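Students often ask why we bother encoding 3D structure as a string. The short answer is that it lets us treat folding as translation between two languages. Here is a chain of 194 residues written in the first language.
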Amino acid sequence: MRSFIAHFLLLLLLAPTFSLQAQNGCRVVRESLKPIIQVYNPFFTDHRWDNARKSERARLDEHRALIINQAGCKRHHIALVMVLDTDVIENHNGFWNAQTKLMMHAVFFQDPSYALYRKEFEQTFAKKLKMYGLNQQFNFPIGTRNFVCEIKYDPNRGANIRIELVTYVFAETVLRKKGIARELDDGWFPKGPN
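And here it is in the second language, the structure alphabet:
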């Protein structure tokens, strides 16, 4: 029994060390996460940022609200959830595609990286929605991003359009030999005598 207590106390003392080691391996620093919605974004009202939770809330209009949560370590997760009232819902794929485009365009307004994958995202999302339908989760990759999507619909309660963007954060360690200028370093070194 005493050895169990001793091991337990040792584990309690080392627990902060383990968590620090886990945090050191992360490439996304929690403190560096900032709001996704820009300050002067004209599409949203009642925008609120909770820095402790890394969460933001905003309204597109009186029938559409948006919740964004961020997290990350080796990947940056951005979960977008647009909540729709029953008053505005038209239950057909054209409506869901239009609402998803509206949400993505409004959230990533003035974000140049969105323009790089917008067209492919819209086409793939429409194809997957047609294939899987409502209340089914589906995902697809585009470049270094993976999109996890689901439209939850209940005729009595409304709908949630959920898109989670998962971006892998690369950590490159580039080693250069001394004496080679950065602009001349092509990474190919002649094999040494060993």
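Translate back mentally: Residues 30-168 form one domain. Keep this in mind for the problem set.
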